[in-house]
Amino acid sequence: MRRRLFLAVAAGWVLLAQKRRSVAAVIGGSRSSAYPLTALPAYLDTIIPRDNSGSASDFGVDRQFIDQASRSRQHMRLLRAGSKWLDSEARKIGAGGFSDLDPSSREVIVERAATARIRSLPRVFFDRTRRDAFRAYYADPLSWERAGYEGPPQPKGFPDHAEAPR
Amino acid sequence: MTADAFDVIVIGSGAGGGTAAWALAERGIAVLLLEAGPPYDPFSDYRLDQPDWETQHFPAKVPTKGRQTTARMQRLNAKWDDLRSWNRVRGRYNPGDHRADWGYSHVVGLGGSTLHFTGEAHRMHPRAMQMHSRFGVAADWPVDYAALEPFYLEVERLIGVAGPTDDPIRPRSAPFPLPAHPLSYGSQKIAVGCQKLGLSFTANARAALSQPYDGRPACNYCGNCTRGCPRTDKGSVDVTFIPKAVATGNCTIRTEATVLHIETGPDDRVSGVVYIDATGATHMAKGDAVVVACGAVETPRLLLNSANPHTSDGLGNESGQVGRHFMETLSWTSSGLHDEPLGSHRGLPSDGICWDFNAPDAIPDIVGGCRFSAAVHEADLTGPVKYATRVVQGWGRQHKQAMREKFGRALSVGAIGESLPNPKSFIDLDPKEKDGQGQPKARIHSHLDDEELKRLSFMAKTSRAILKASGAGDIFEEYGAYDGFQPTHVFGTCRMGTNPEESVVDPYGRSHRWRNLFITDASVFPSSGGGESPSLTIEALAIRSARHLADRAKRGAL
Q1: Residue in B185, B380, B486 closest to A163 by CB
Q2: Which of A27, B272, B376, B391 has the greatest number of beta carbons closer than 10 A?
């Protein structure tokens, strides 16, 4: 019967449940309920930058984020709280906001979020948005060729499966 | 309340129920097949041709989360920390200090859990059917391998099983109906790794067509059997036994029909069932016999919920054994990155297997066997989303570059081992939680004792060794049953045996007391086997029980 696939799915669910609790804890008292999301496209493009393939915003990941978050008040609160944190970090180094920074300065701030204390606002924001950004970006067939993936699985399948990949 | 009359009512349409319905119908018996879930259309429900295929799992129409409850799981012990589930990107999957309940994995739909099964088609190891007489654990099967062999062969021919020509462990009276599938390029690396360790690694027996068969096309190796097969080459019950049953003209199917309880009559006979349909209307169906095949969690629940003044402890529970001896899926999976591109997302899931430790005495100093198989597809490492979120660390340009370098290099080795019964693992009725019809839900009690964990530890260490020898020693993820309960194979809660005081049904699946009540799912298994997937055995037993029922019906001996 079907076995281990669901183990991974459930494992993701446990992590998500834990993060949901964390989200409530870290953004519960913040005054970011109407904070603008202007930092979001630049932030996502730092997570997935443009090189010889498109960036996150080139693939509309930022718009997908906002669409998805608009269906969950808690999710939207996390995006707004995270955006506020990004802008506040940018202002500490004299910029008007995160989107005004050059790419290397943005990377410094994102690295700060990625290595922040577990269950802190920047870390929860980073972990959730990183996962969601990759999920949206790599679900777009435009990203597949550069990643070396020749899917989707059907209708062609992989009749060459027993041979070394070309 | 409306009432229909049939020769036999079959409850549940998975491996046990769908097969029994066919075996009865083809003998001219009028069957009513009741299924709680809806039908699935492989051609429109399984969307593996869509851009977002990877973010969708099996498209369950009936949510299974919360259908059962789970008693508090055991506390985790630091001495088994090596068996914790983890991922290099995400950390521990269960950061808590108790085993997590990740849910009993099953499908509610026409065809049952075969809709999402991988489709391994295993016969039991003959010696794994004698666990009590040989080792003093579990119970002996009251039917031996030789008696089951003709039924195994019949099932293999009906559903189209592809397998290797030789099997020194499980004697065959005829070859598999289809030639074995070739190993994928990734699995060929595992074969090399096993060879280095002195282990065998052979083609697995698979209910997936290696050639066109019985009007169905051959597999095209897309690697996603567990998301539902849109080609119908996977031998799930909905594309095999159920259409064959319908074609007899003797099988009536009612989907979204939830059975509330089984009715009893005089002379230790059951008389029919009461069920509700999708509109909430209540119906009664009368039958000369009732076959229950709801799986090892829901079958004991239905029997216990069918208690009445004539059978106050639950239907068929004269021995007090209904719900006892629950056995689950003792599983482990390790995944690592290979040094070279493999295109490992391609191929048939679990196409190769190592049976060397399958015998109940094959693992040194541990009772109960296990097996190892290629598992990258079942670990769901078949597309770029999972690589981006589970395999490749970091972010930014480095992440994109690493995606290009690492995609298709993952290899996984999965292990499943014997699950032995213990007094702390059983199914009962939840005293508080009820379903939408006011019926108590099944409550699952699961406990892994140290003997189980020793076996699991052997499985984990051997999986890692195979990966390392295969060139994929850079392990990035592992998960198993120790810290997360999420079985797909469940067994043993209505044990079959010859002694009415120690079992629920006789060797033909017939209740010891209720002479026209049969059970044809894995709840009758006295032991789980050493990692064999159970569907083929369930189907073989179901045909055997159905033929016995049909013979009795013709003799007027029900």
Answers
A1: B185
A2: B376
